[in-house]
Recover the amino acids of this structure.
């Protein structure tokens, strides 16, 4: 269903820190459903209810995305954006440079 697609995917870290893209409300609710019950908190509840409301057509997918992002941020699941990662060249590390 296209009405539940996010305008931009949310990249989260899963398992041992592997990035995965969550592209829709359906994918977000699957992540939330699999979240361990012992770790569920108000951020989880809000995101889960927002995703259910989006699937029912009661709110926009982007509203649910915002709640999912807040949940992911709260639990340190958001993958760093590549443009925010500062790269270090080999010359800066002292490799390949003549000293």
């Amino acid at each position: 269903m296209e009405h539940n697609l996010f305008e931009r995917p949310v990249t989260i870290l899963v398992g041992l820190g592997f990035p995965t893209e969550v592209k829709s409300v359906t994918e977000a609710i699957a992540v939330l459903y699999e979240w361990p019950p012992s770790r569920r908190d108000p951020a989880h509840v809000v995101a889960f209810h927002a995703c259910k409301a989006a699937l029912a057509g009661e709110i926009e997918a982007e509203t649910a995305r915002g709640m999912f992002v807040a949940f992911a941020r709260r639990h340190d699941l958001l993958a760093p954006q590549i443009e925010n990662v500062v790269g270090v060249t080999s010359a800066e590390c002292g490799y390949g440079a003549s000293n």
Q: What stands out?
A: The CA atoms of residues 41 and 71 lie 9 Å apart. Strands lie at 5-14, 18-24.
